[in-house]
Amino acid sequence: MSVLVYAESEKGQLKKIALELASFGRAIADQLNTDLIAITVNCDNNELLGNYGVNEILTSSHPEEFNAQQYAAIVKDAAQKKDAKVIAVSSSADSRYLAPLAAVELNAGYVTNVVEAPLSTTPFHVKRSVFTNKAFGISELNTDVKMVGLSKNAFGMHENPTTPTVTEFSPTVNNSSMEIASVDKANDQVTIADAEIVVSGGRGLKGPENWHLIEDLASTLGAATACSKPVSDMGWRPHSEHVGQTGKPVASNLYIAVGVSGAIQHLAGINASKVKVVINSDPEAPFFKAADYGIVGDAFEVVPKMIEKLKSFQAENT
Amino acid sequence: MKILVCISHVPDTTSKINFVENNTQFDTQGVQYIINPNDEFGLTRAMWFKEKEGATVDVINVGGPATESTLRKALAIGADNAIRIHTEALDATQVAKEIVAVIQENGYDLIIAGRESIDYNGGMVPGMIAALTGMNYLNNCIRLEIEGQNATAVREMDGGKETVTTPLPLVIGAQKGLVEESDLRIPNMRGIMMARKKPLSVLEPQHGDAQVQTIAYEKPAPKGAVKLVEPENIDQLISLLHNEAKVI
Ligand SMILES: Cc1cc2nc3c(=O)[nH]c(=O)nc-3n(C[C@H](O)[C@H](O)[C@H](O)COP(=O)(O)OP(=O)(O)OC[C@H]3O[C@@H](n4cnc5c(N)ncnc54)[C@H](O)[C@@H]3O)c2cc1C
Ligand SMILES: Nc1ncnc2c1ncn2[C@@H]1O[C@H](COP(=O)(O)O)[C@@H](O)[C@H]1O
After folding, report:
1. pTM given for the model
2. Contact A177 B140 (CB under 8 A)
3. Digit-coded pLDDT (tens) for A252-294
């Protein structure tokens, strides 16, 4: 038996979440006293997984483009070949897309949003977040093969050097009748899904002409930019930046909200972020109750000062 | 074209989340239930197919009698038939298998479910339906056009979007963007009256085995109070973020 992780890459390079997932997989493999196997597709820097406790890497160079059905078939083939009893996937859009397909094929019980290593392996108990992070559920999986989806940033990266073997893997992949007509992806921007830090602006910024404040603060921090729902509804910012219950979820290390009141629907999307900083001129803004750090002040004064101070901090610390 | 929209009956976001019976059951007291927002986007898209292309739209829920008010709301918005599978499913696999039994019985060209339900946030049911039926599947669907037996659909992915073409039948995981919030419909009086006369059939479940059972719930530890920093003292904030929170 073994534990298998699907380690995602983008343009040939492993994603950070793949390394977090490997760390998580290592912890489960230790609990079960077994090997950790990783499956990668079109990945050029497989060796990196050796820093995070992977014993063996199966690497496939096919298919070239992501297709959920085909990738699910690859994960399934790898799991069967390696007699994997636990399969772990990340919470990226692609992983959440393919995982239920693979789970059905493997007849595996599957849970998402898992926040820590299993509480026990016999019986198999995991803790997952539910109700948009307002509570946790303890779930018992009673199938022979189990599949777990790790919540982003919940486990962290833990180094654990190994010297993995790398094996070419040729899975059985059927043709798909689903064809990709076009892909539209910004290449240079940090995405909300991948970002360690997200800077978000609300209606308190008064208008799109003031968004340079959010953008400058974000670029100083290497952060992604986001916004509240009314901001995207009014067309100040694109819809893809809207976070919250009806928008994108954010599970960053640091979330900085500027001029956002902190309505419950907004918080529902950002609860999973580790550290929250709020800048708001109203000391009664509900966001302060959900925040770790706050400044009661005018964004138009605080943000430029913050950018300046951060730049000098960075100059001193590099 | 025959469309099936999967409707999950969920607590409104502003609901208090509490648990009873030794933290093993969700406390439904005083909770307002709504159509899962992702399903409402999907249902609205289905209404356009009905109005422009003459599609028939069935809605389905796997749940107890309490979910009928939510199914009636979907009928009032314009769905033609409602189906309730009479069982409190324990996991997504059970839900998916019950829905698949209905799909196999009735035959549909398009199955619309939500990207995820806002209660248990599983994000599993539509993918499982696709895998169990062998239909093609598109998650995080933000656009869908159908011509004859072929669909063109757009999927939102991390940092971008992708357009795909696929033959029907198809399963989608719907979300905002498929239609906009301003397109959502509030049932009017006529709709509500008509909904009372529309068929709502209650079917017995297959009783498949659950693979996952949730045995207990916990609430997160109460969060400490916010640390406020004076606007004149931004250096202090930076030092807290660096030394204490270790996030910069
Ligand atoms: C079904 C439903 C779903 C929803 N989904 C979402 C969602 O997914 N995401 C979301 O964000 N919202 C969502 N909402 C809307 C939500 O309820 C709030 O209306 C919204 O989040 C408020 O946006 P805001 O904080 O930008 O604006 P406001 O509530 O107007 O807050 C602006 C804030 O800026 C502060 N401010 C003003 N001037 C300054 C200044 N100079 N400096 C600093 N601060 C200043 C104010 O004190 C105030 O707190 C949803 C609502 C419903 C009903
Ligand atoms: N009990 C249910 N009855 C009908 N449809 C459901 C049910 N549970 C989930 N769904 C559908 O599956 C989608 C995803 O749900 P979930 O996998 O629970 O996050 C929902 O948006 C619904 O469309």
Report:
1. 0.93
2. no
3. 999 999 999 999 999 999 999 999 999 999 999 999 999 999 9
Per-residue model confidence as pLDDT tens digits over B131-173: 999 999 999 999 999 999 999 999 999 889 999 999 999 999 9
A140/B212 CB distance under 8 A = yes
β strands within chain A, DSSP E: 2-6, 9-10, 13-14, 35-41, 56-60, 84-89, 109-114, 124-130, 135-141, 146-150, 165-168, 179-185, 197-201, 224-227, 254-258, 275-280, 293-296
Q: What is the ipTM of this complex?
A: 0.93
Q: From atom 10 of ligand 2, which residue's Cα is the shortest distance away?
A: B8
Ligand 2 test: best mutation among B86, B125, B139, most atoms within 8 Å of CB?
B125
Cα–Cα distance measured from residue A204 to residue A83, given in angstroms and rounded to the nearest whole number: 55
| B27, B226, B240, best to mutate vs chain A, most A CBs in 10 Å | B226
Strand A254-258 versus strand A275-280 pairing type: parallel
* A91, B39, B220 from A152: Cα distances, Å: 6, 25, 17
| CA-to-CA separations, A279 to A16, A261, A301, A306, A309, in angstroms, rounded | 29, 10, 11, 11, 15
Per-domain residue ranges of chain A: 2-168, 197-316
CA distance A179 to B163: 9
> How do strand B136-147 and strand B150-157 relate by DSSP bridges?
antiparallel
Nearest CA, atom 23, ligand 2: B113
CATH architecture of A197-316: 3-Layer(aba) Sandwich (3.40)
pLDDT band of residue B119 (cuts 50, 70, 90) is very high
Question: How far is residue B28's CA from residue B15's CA, in Å, rounded to a whole number?
Answer: 9
CATH topology of domain A2-168: Rossmann fold (3.40.50)
B231 and A94 within 8 Å at the Cβ level: the answer is no
Mean pLDDT for A140-163 is: 96
User: What is the β-pairing status of strands B110-114 and B33-35?
Assistant: unpaired
Provide the token pair at A53. Answer: 């406790």
Of A72, A100, A178, the CB nearest to B136: A178
Q: Where are the alpha helices (DSSP H) in chain A?
A: 16-32, 68-81, 93-106, 212-221, 229-233, 264-270, 287-290, 299-316
Contact assignment for B177 to A69 by CB distance below 8 Å = no
B2-216 CATH pick, 3.40.50.11890, 3.90.550.10, 3.40.50.620, 2.60.40.10: 3.40.50.620
